[in-house]
Amino acid sequence: MNLANGLTLTRIFLIPIYLLFFYSTLEKRIVYAGIVLIVSGITDMLDGYVARKYNMVTKLGTVLDPIADKLTTFAVLASFTSYELISPWILIVLGIKELALIVGGGILYCSDDKKVIPANKFGKVATVSFYIAIISVILSLHQTAINTLFYITIFFHLLAFLNYLSIFKGVMADKDEA
């Protein structure tokens, strides 16, 4: 296990810590949970940077990174929805998108050549927009600002989804030709 993969695993281990803080009875539980998310976001940026800079890109890391992203996304959206901090439709739209990516990624990974589509600029922009929208909730910004940031997040997530769908179709077409 290299450093980049260790950082990705750290993000996965931060999810239950986030949930413990979020659902605790602490007075500033949302702030503490938010700090854990910020650490997770920084770790997300670091794992990719370290992997690329020090040539630590591995198949395991390429698989674990989106899993960590999706688990974090689901945990945050479900917890925010459960306390009515965001509208349930946000969880539904982003949840369906994430499930579709999991299914598509699983199909590619379970194929003969164990193909994995790495994160790209569309997915990274979607992730950054997600963290910004989440931070707006943690900071208790005006509801109009929060809603606007989530609309932007959904736009970027759907754009990323369409990009990944295009790549998926290309990979599947190449398989059919082979």
Automatic annotation (TrEMBL):
Enzyme superclass (EC): transferase
Membrane topology: Multi-pass membrane protein
GO CC annotations, alphabetized: membrane
Catalytic reaction equation(s): a CDP-1,2-diacyl-sn-glycerol + sn-glycerol 3-phosphate = a 1,2-diacyl-sn-glycero-3-phospho-(1'-sn-glycero-3'-phosphate) + CMP + H(+)
Keyword Cytoplasm attached: no
Pfam families assigned: CDP-OH_P_transf
A GO MF label: CDP-diacylglycerol-glycerol-3-phosphate 3-phosphatidyltransferase activity
Keywords: Lipid biosynthesis, Lipid metabolism, Membrane, Phospholipid biosynthesis, Phospholipid metabolism, Transferase, Transmembrane, Transmembrane helix
Positions of transmembrane segments: 6-23, 30-51, 89-110, 122-142, 148-165
Top-rank taxon: Bacteria
Entry-linked Gene3D superfamilies: 1.20.120.1760
Biological process terms in GO annotation: glycerophospholipid biosynthetic process
Stated role: This protein catalyzes the committed step to the synthesis of the acidic phospholipids.
PANTHER family hit by this protein: CDP-DIACYLGLYCEROL--GLYCEROL-3-PHOSPHATE 3-PHOSPHATIDYLTRANSFERASE 1, CHLOROPLASTIC, CDP-DIACYLGLYCEROL--GLYCEROL-3-PHOSPHATE 3-PHOSPHATIDYLTRANSFERASE-RELATED
Protein name, entry field: CDP-diacylglycerol--glycerol-3-phosphate 3-phosphatidyltransferase
Taxonomic lineage of the native organism: Bacteria, Bacillati, Bacillota, Tissierellia, Tissierellales
Gene expressing this chain: pgsA
